[in-house]
Amino acid sequence: MLADTLARLQSTDRDIAGRVADHLDRLTKPPGSLGRLESLAITLATITGEELPRITPPGVLVFAADHGVAAEGVSAFPQAVTAQMVGNFVAGGAAINVFARQIGARLEVIDVGVASELSRDSAARGGESGLVHDKVRRGTANFAEQDAMQRAEAVQAIEVGIRAAERAVAAGCRCLIVGEMGIANTTASSAMLAVLTGEPVADLTGQGTGIPESRLAHKQAVIERAIEARAPDPQDPLDILSKLGGLEIAAMAGAYLGGASRRVPLLVDGFIATVAALLACRIDSKVRDYLIFGHRSREPGHVHALTALGGDPLLELGLRLGEGTGAALAFPLLEAATRMLADMATFASAGVAGSEGA
Ligand SMILES: Cc1cc2ncn([C@H]3O[C@H](COP(=O)(O)O)[C@@H](O)[C@H]3O)c2cc1C
Ligand SMILES: O=C(O)c1cccnc1
């Protein structure tokens, strides 16, 4: 399935960019005056192959999994919160539920590796979003002591993500927002980012859910020792994922690969999501052209992950949550870009005089 997805991945349609740029200059505004909204419109056209791109409804995919490395005391919250938050997603009470409703998104929560068995009838008990059971294993192993998972499990988790993206596209979603829930996943993300970029762990590691400053040095030391002990091959994204990764992060990378293979714009959330997007790009660099970055997270590693991808986020709101929240908040800007293209009058149609030039 991964091989089929990679075989289908194409470069975006650059030819369309010139035509959309010409159309933008015919709209009733001084050329370029809508700034980034104009480049956003061109990007959406190159991704979708449509001169009038359609991006609604968006699909939000929240992947949940646990992390063995939580046992090292690297998060401010206990591991059980992952499963408890899945219950909250299903009931509709988490931040991502609120923002997903605001943008009319289809929301799906996928258990790709929560440590406990989640109730199979939870979605039927009046919850608003479906819970998909696609568990690869009950959490990763503690990568401070052994590899987080086997390579075959990392591939399986990537395929969980591809399947979720395929379901969203089949249900009519035209833009994907990929989010996560997994206590200790900032530790896994910082570790993988350090290997992917070669930058110092201290620059890439932050307080996550809010560990005290005094525990930050411990978190960094856990990551540094694990990188040394696991010794992943920096050129091999699957090796990095299996030795230091998380099941939800692998699934997120898979969702980006799957969405790109279906020519759907991928609106990237915060730190965890950007590390997953970087992994997807290391698996196939063509994914990069499908990425639009929603916001800059307060987690200090995020700016480094963005730099590695050449990403320039739309918003900076001081968020440090994940779940897909920052991307969901940025979605109305994408919608504005498409409406500008489709609904604004041209100089000719409105009888407005154009520029007289210099
Ligand atoms: C109630 C709650 C809701 C959340 N929603 C997202 N996260 C975020 O925090 C976690 C990562 O931080 P760390 O690595 O420090 O554990 C992830 O689950 C992430 O999605 C949450 C965390 C908590 C506690
Ligand atoms: O930016 C994120 O994705 C993030 C930051 C802190 C905690 N969880 C997620």
TrEMBL record:
Going by the entry's taxonomy, the superkingdom of the source organism is recorded as Bacteria
EC number(s) in its UniProt entry? 2.4.2.21
Name the active site residues.
Answer: 323
Q: Which SUPFAM superfamilies does the record associate with it?
A: Nicotinate mononucleotide:5,6-dimethylbenzimidazole phosphoribosyltransferase (CobT)
A Pfam family assignment: DBI_PRT
Task: Work out whether the entry's keyword set contains DNA repair.
Answer: no
One GO MF annotation is:
nicotinate-nucleotide-dimethylbenzimidazole phosphoribosyltransferase activity
Q: Which CDD domains match?
A: DMB-PRT_CobT
List keywords of the entry alphabetically: Cobalamin biosynthesis, Glycosyltransferase, Transferase
Output the GO biological process annotations, alphabetical, semicolon-separated: cobalamin biosynthetic process
UniProt signal peptide: none
Outline what the protein does.
Answer: Catalyzes the synthesis of alpha-ribazole-5'-phosphate from nicotinate mononucleotide (NAMN) and 5,6-dimethylbenzimidazole (DMB).
Write out the similarity annotation: Belongs to the CobT family.
Q: What is this protein called?
A: Nicotinate-nucleotide--dimethylbenzimidazole phosphoribosyltransferase
Q: Which organism is it from?
A: Billgrantia montanilacus
